[in-house]
Each structure stands twice: as C-alpha cells, then as structure tokens.
Amino acid sequence: IQEGYLVSGIIIPMILPVGCPLWCIAIAVAFAVIFGKEIFGGTGMNIFNVALLARAFLFFSYPTKMSGDSVWVATDSIFGLGNTLPDAFTCATPLGQMAQGSAPSASLFDSIVGLIPGSIGETSVIAIAIGAVILLWTGIASWKTMLSVFLGGSVMAAIFQATGQTPVEWYEHIVLGGFCFGAVFMATDPVTSARTETGKWIYGILIGALAVIIRVMNPGYPEGMMLAILFGNMMAPAIDFYVVEANISKRMKRAKK
To answer: Is the same domain home to 251 and 153?
Structure first.
C-alpha cells in the first residue's frame, strides 16, 4: 500500500491543474490506491489506470477544483529577467476555447514547446517526447500501443475536420490537452492495457478515436483522453480474449485441413 501511495502521489499531480488543492490530491490518492488497486489484489492486478482513476474521482467529486476550461497562469513571461513573484489569473485552455466553438489562441509552436495553460505534465510535447523515447528504449511501453493511439486520434480528427465539425486542424488535436501525455504514459501502462500484439493495435486505435469523439461531440467536457483511456482499460481484457479466441479458431481450422 505504501508503494501505491508513493507512485500515485508522484504521477497523479502531473495530470492535475496546478491550482488543485493538496487536500484534494490526498483524498484522490487514497481513493485510487484503495479502490482502484488494493481491492483488486494489489500491484499488477488492477483493471483501471490508478492515476486516471484518481483524476476521474476528482473530476466528478470536486468539479470546481478540476475545471477543464480555465486554469491558473502567470502574467509575466517565464523567460523574463528580474521579475518579482508574478501575479496570476485564470484563462481558458486551448481545449476550453475549442469547446466554445472558436479556434485556440495558442500557436502550434506554443503547444509543442509548452507555453500554454493546462495540467502540469501535459503541456510540453517536447518533454513528453523525451519520456516516450526513454519508455521505448527501456522496453517498458509498447510502440504499437503508442503509435495506434496517435493513429486513431489523427484519423478521427481528420474526419471531423473534413466534415467541418471542429475549428482546428487535425494535427492540433494531437498536441493539445492531454492527448500526447495519455498516449505515451497512460495508455501504455503494461498492467491495464491490451497484452496481445493484435489487441494493442485495436486498444490504441479505440482510445485515440474515442478521445477525439468526446472532445468534438461533447462540448461540456473539453478533454476526452481520461475517459477514453479508462474505457480502453475496461475493454482491454475483452479485446485480448477475442484476439486469442480468433487465433485458436484459425489453428483449429488449420489442424482440420
């Protein structure tokens, strides 16, 4: 349990707004570790991603602390010299602006570098890319799962762009919000993701496509990556089961011939 508290206490703040109170994080960590991990048998037995389960708990229990369309930002440039402690204000995130039907004010460069408001770990695509390289190099994450999430999201975003249902380009969906962070660090969780090689492709495409569908079709919830991954976690065992059954069926037919 102590290990679960330690790991969750490090990961969960990365997917929360910077202004989220510490007492909220403490309650979410306790809920996620007890009801999302230990109740299923402990480490390696949990069905849902523990960090995302904590975020979902906060989102539905304390929505005013987890607002998806406004976050704390500094008034001064982070590259400014000689500045005192900056003042702060709230402004709409790029996804919040998109949910209101307008194109985000942030440029593509700002979205990639990380000069946009958002949760602590999701804003810089460059930092996420470095993490992706490390995960792939060490063999912790599956490149098939990671690539399929981006593939599913890109195709679905391109469909919505072609039909005029989204005010941004298809590739902007990929660099905005928690899409990259979720695809690299959350969807690839080896415990809660699909484990068969074919299932990894199905699992990833499902998550990527569903995340964009939620963003575009449900303006009341600007970010869809969290719910998409939790849904993918729920479907992962079924995906693996049917992939294995399909392989068994093929072998049986081959044996009869």
So the answer is: yes
| Domain presence at residue 92 | no
Domain that holds residue 61: 1-66
Q: Is residue 87 part of a domain?
A: no
Query: How many domains, the chain?
Result: 2
Name the token pair of 168.
């941004």
Please tell me whether residues 134 and 15 are part of one structural domain: no
pLDDT tens track for 29-77? 888 888 888 888 887 788 999 888 988 898 888 877 765 444 445 544 4
> Out of 134-138, 189-193, 217-221, which region has the weakest mean confidence (pLDDT)?
217-221
> How many Cβ atoms from other residues are within 10 Å of residue 5's Cβ?
16
Give the phi and the psi of residue 114 in degrees, each rounded to 5: 115, 20
Residues in the chain: 257
Are 241 and 88 within 8 A, CB to CB? no
Same domain, 53 and 112: no
Global pTM reads 0.82
Cβ-based neighbour number of residue 39 at 10 Å: 11
User: In sequence order, what are the residues at sequence separation of 6 or more whose Cβ sits closer than 8 angstroms to the Cβ of residue 157?
Assistant: 166, 170, 171, 173, 174, 212
